[in-house]
Write a structure and sequence with these properties.
- There is one protein chain.
- With 352 residues, this protein is mainly alpha-helical.
- The chain contains 17 helices and 3 strands.
- A 3-stranded antiparallel β-sheet has the order 1-3-2.
- Strand 2 and strand 3 form a beta hairpin.
- Helix 5 packs antiparallel against helix 6, helix 6 packs parallel to helix 8 and helix 7 crosses helix 11.
- The longest helix is centred in the first third of the chain and has 36 residues.
- The radius of gyration is 25 Å and the shape is elongated.
Amino acid sequence: MISDDGEGSHPASPPLTCSQGHRSSLQLQTQQGGCICLLCFSNLISSPNSPTFHVSYALSQLSLAISQPWFLHGLITFHVHIIISPLVHSLSSFDDEPIAHQIIDLIVGICSAGGSEVLGEAVARVSDLLSSGALAWSRRQVYTNLNPYIYVKDKDGLINNLVIGLRLPSEEIQGEILFVLYRIAVLQCTSRDDEGADLFSAHCAKLLHLSLEALMKTQSDDVRLNCVALLKVLAQRGFLENAFSSDFNIMDTYEADNFMQTTDDSNNGSSLSTLLAEAIKAPLLSPDSQVQIATLDFIYHCLSWEGFSGKQIHVLVEENVVDYIFEILRLSSKDLLFLLLVPLLPKAMLEE
């Protein structure tokens, strides 16, 4: 598959076939005088039975080769569609984090050079795998670059799979999933995609409870920041306001068993208000001022809703959220933090 025939700055004539009999048009020569058979490479990384050290070596050689401008130009111009599909699908073939990093770095490098068409194909294939659940959630499934959302075909399946991933105990994966969901929400909002609004509505009850539970339990400020950013975007789009209505909070038995204790209040807004109050305490006490400011900004949006009732404010007071806010005010000397706190206090104090 990969041969090295010596040093040299100019490629020699390629052999008629590789060792497996594949024609020369499927081979690209490297600056060192060797050549890479793209079909052999694709077959190797597509087979889950391939030895991982062989796969890792092949990936490293291709990564080295695409650093050479003329090799990269030949790959992008003539063979990019041959290589993108097996690279993406190889993510589900090997449960190996270092190999996953190699694959992702290669995909990003090729997409950066290939333009929107190559990027669109890669994103579409990645989102298809995520949407179908073909990839078991693990560190290798951490994706943060889903900006070209237009290329995603099964948007509903993608969002559903991402929301399900929030149930995993890994804080690193939760943080990345929350960031991807945040980016999707922002992209849908800026593009004014009506379909996108409907998609989030269908998953919003589950997403809210899992996000708030993640926010309540995490010890990572990165996860907190991503979670609060997502919640704020959902709040700005009206999803949280709807979530506190009785109709939106009716959950089936399966969801009730997984998200909260089943009580007489499970199907009204009070249980969600309590979860919200508990979830925002830790971010308010975070040593990271960025997390504190983002959380206060989110609380301000909550208190600004016309539908945020006195009963829900009372829950925040009963859960001592106002005390947390006063404590931040007492300890903070930052003008920005003070300006964010001042609008919160009058409305919150109405229930004192």
